[in-house]
TrEMBL record:
Belongs to the pyridoxamine 5'-phosphate oxidase family. The keyword Oxidoreductase applies. PANTHER family: PYRIDOXINE-5'-PHOSPHATE OXIDASE, PYRIDOXINE-5-PHOSPHATE OXIDASE. GO terms for molecular function: FMN binding; pyridoxamine phosphate oxidase activity. It is an enzyme of class 1 (oxidoreductase). InterPro entries: Pyridox_Oxase, Pyridox_Oxase_CS, Pyridox_Oxase_N, Pyridoxamine_oxidase_dimer_C, Split_barrel_FMN-bd. Residues 54-171 form the Pyridoxamine 5'-phosphate oxidase N-terminal domain. FMN binds at residues 74-79, 89-90, 95-96, 118, 153-154, 199, 209. It catalyses: pyridoxine 5'-phosphate + O2 = pyridoxal 5'-phosphate + H2O2; pyridoxamine 5'-phosphate + O2 + H2O = pyridoxal 5'-phosphate + H2O2 + NH4(+). This is Pyridoxine/pyridoxamine 5'-phosphate oxidase. Homodimer.
């Protein structure tokens, strides 16, 4: 039995996907609703996304620029946030790790489509210290630690079978042992934002966009200024 889709049906499905329109409703984001601290505002929205059933609300699209000035994006998971910034973990020898070593700035996009919201974060990125990376590594499931050790992320491999064989070898090496060493190449990054945009979808594409910009000249005043952008 063929799994091929009828060409006419495929064309109709593609056309529908490209031309469909959805009105995002009347939920609003006003300046009076906004907390003066963007991290508090982010925590509120993250909690709401979780409460309202957004799948993987801590998933974010990380955008970087490599040493050759080529941009790239991928989805990673947020694993920490406080007034120091947004934390994620990865293989530092991966494509994203090499890009961050060359150009230590990045953007994060939280695409909460279900509730018609986005948060876009831009800032400088630095590695977290070994103690913090070790502490998070210890919380990861056994299988995730084995997989991260086995995989040289972003590098070519001949087949899936080769990767699975490496996993089997590590499972034998660590049989009965839960204390799997964190590879030196694997660790955390913290993005310290200078810009955070909160985006709320609205009717007729008249979306609300409120942006926090870090104010380098704030002195004793508020460290952030807020402005509204046109949709």
């Amino acid at each position: 039995m063929s799994d091929a889709i009828d060409p006419d049906r495929l064309d109709r499905a593609v056309e529908h996907a490209l031309t469909r329109r959805k009105d995002y409703g009347e939920e609003r984001l006003d300046e009076g609703q906004l907390d003066p601290d963007p991290f508090v505002q982010f925590d509120r929205w993250l909690a709401e996304a979780d409460d309202r059933g957004v799948y993987e609300p801590n998933a974010m699209v990380l955008g970087t620029v490599g040493a050759d000035a080529t941009p790239s994006s991928r989805t990673v998971l947020l694993r920490g946030v406080d007034d120091r910034g947004f934390v994620f973990y990865t293989d530092r020898s991966s494509r994203k790790g090499l890009a961050l070593a060359a150009n230590p700035t990045a953007t994060l996009l939280f695409p909460w489509y279900l509730i018609h919201r986005q948060v876009i974060v831009t800032g400088a990125v630095a590695t977290v210290d070994d103690d913090e990376s070790d502490a998070y590594w210890a919380t990861r499931p056994y299988g995730s630690r084995i997989a991260a050790t086995a995989s040289r992320q972003s590098r070519p491999i001949g087949s899936r079978a080769e990767l699975e064989e490496r996993v089997r070898e590590l499972e034998e090496e660590y049989a009965g042992v839960d204390d799997i060493r964190r590879p030196e190449r694997w660790g955390g990054y913290r993005l310290r934002p200078w810009r955070i945009e909160f985006w709320q979808g609205r009717t007729s594409r008249l979306h609300d966009r409120l942006v926090f910009e870090r104010d380098a000249d704030a002195g004793s005043g508020p460290p952030w200024r807020v402005e509204r952008l046109q949709p």
